[in-house]
Amino acid sequence: MPKLPIIAAFALFLSCASAQSSNLAFENSSPITLKHLHDTHQIVLTQESQSPGQTPTDLTHIATYTSDPPNIITVSPSGLVTVLTAGETTLTATHGELSISKPIKVASAETTAISFTNDFVPVLSKYGCNGGGCHGKAAGQNGFKLSLFGYEPWNDYNYLVRDSRGRRIFRAAPEHSLLVLKATGEIPHQGGSRLEKNSPDYQAIIRWIKQGLPNDPKEFPKATSISVYPKERLTQPNSQQQLRVTAHFSDNSTRDISHLAQYESNDEERASVTMDGRVTMGDIPGSASIMIRFQEHVDVFRAILPLGAPVENLPQPANFVDQHIFTQL
Question: Contact at 8 Å (CB) between 261 and 112?
Answer without folding.
Answer: no
